[in-house]
Amino acid sequence: YDGVSTAWNINNATFFKASIEAIQEFKVHAGTYSAEYGHNAGTQVEILTRAGTNQLHGALFEFLRNDNFDARNYFRPRPLCKDILQRNQFGFVLSGPVWIPKIYNGRDKTFWMVNYEGQREKQEVASIASVAPDAFRTGDFSALSTPLRDPLGGTFAGNRIPADRLSPISLRYLEIHPRPNLPGLASNLAGVEQQINNINQVFARGD
Length: 207
Hints:
Blueprint: E1 23-29, E2 44-49, E3 57-66, E4 85-98, H1 101-104, E5 110-129, H2 134-137, H3 168-176, E6 189-206
Antiparallel strand pairs: 1-2, 3-4, 4-5, 5-6
């Protein structure tokens, strides 16, 4: 950005992204390029942000995504409802001149630009996991073909653990562990993870 590297050396991620309205031009360098573009192979992106002019300029923007406008995800597992996605990305760009007549003769000398961008995002991501079936929680492992070994010797008859041999700690853990909502021994829990990602970003430029 404007001749300054914004790549994070740990994973080459860019920790700063100017708003689209604040970008004047960009250039993509691919293949072989001079050493001034960094120590990384592959592609380098050079971005120049907008500068101010003698006239005051401004722009407002907002990008909206909402699940009310979306169709149901084909891969969304039942019995879950439609994916939730509420995303608002908004902000403004304002630029203009700095007029100091005694020093700069009034015009064409010094300019400024300010950019603000905010993001409000709420999203639910569907996933499927495996949890202990209801029968396993009572010590009934008869659905398994492999003999269940007794740590005191031998095996449990019918792959069923007697109630008095169940660990109180394990039973307490199972009380707070999610119960299955799908049939089967594996991939029997359909759920969603809620992700909230709110961002505020401000930067200014002077020329």
